[in-house]
Specification:
single chain; alpha/beta; Nucleotidyltransferase, domain 5; 5-stranded mixed sheet; 9 helices; 5 strands; globular
């Protein structure tokens, strides 16, 4: 899990950050990104792609990462921004914000996915990087837990959608709630227009 980190340090980089996001697919809520700088040669066999971990394990590792990382940064793009500029651009903007939130500036980024973060920092996009790089995996955990906590706050404001359970994803329960109650302020209007499963719901609610 640290091959990419080792290569970066061998190439002469001094400070490597992993960058990932959570929440590109939901129908509601923000996309949240995280950037994590781990100490060189850092090891933790439990750190993995957040999607492969239970919620309890993610919460446990969140605290470990926060305490043992050199720096952690988080960036958030809300549903309004997602609707304005599209989910890809919003995700990359949140990633950029997460990197800029680091109190130690990295000189190299390992980024999950196909796209570069819109920063001048040297970087390498890695497809499925959250399962190949410990730094990206750590960032995926921070991003996922941070987003889940945000959605739990929204659940208290809008309990009818059960965000505590679905975290904004388009489950049948969530889609039925949209049909019954309409959309709230954190729903992504652009996603509904493109999603055939809920398109009729939007027409009914317009």
């Amino acid at each position: 899990m640290d091959t990419y980190e080792k290569l970066a340090y061998q190439e002469g980089y001094k400070c490597v950050a992993g960058v990932d996001e959570a929440g590109r697919g939901p129908l509601a809520g923000p996309v949240v990104a995280a950037a994590v700088i781990l100490p060189p040669k850092y090891r933790n066999k439990d750190i993995n792609d957040s999607k492969q971990l239970s919620a309890a394990k993610r919460e446990y590792l969140y605290d470990i990462i926060k305490s043992e990382a050199i720096a952690v940064g988080v960036g958030v793009a809300d549903s309004d921004l997602i609707d304005q500029i599209n989910i890809l651009k919003a995700s990359l903007q949140a990633m950029s914000e997460a990197v800029q939130e680091l109190f130690t500036s990295p000189d190299y980024l390992l980024v999950d996915g196909l796209h570069r973060v819109p920063l001048s920092t040297s970087q390498k996009p890695i497809v499925k990087g959250d399962s190949l790089s410990i730094s990206i995996a750590a960032a995926s955990i921070i991003a996922k837990v941070s987003r889940d906590r945000i959605m739990e706050i929204y659940h208290r404001q809008f309990p009818q959608y059960n965000f505590m359970r679905n975290k904004g994803y388009g489950t049948l329960e969530h889609r039925n709630a949209i049909k019954e109650f309409g959309m709230c302020k954190i729903h992504r209007r652009s996603f509904h227009l493109k999603n055939r499963n809920v398109n009729q719901t939007i027409l009914d609610l317009s």
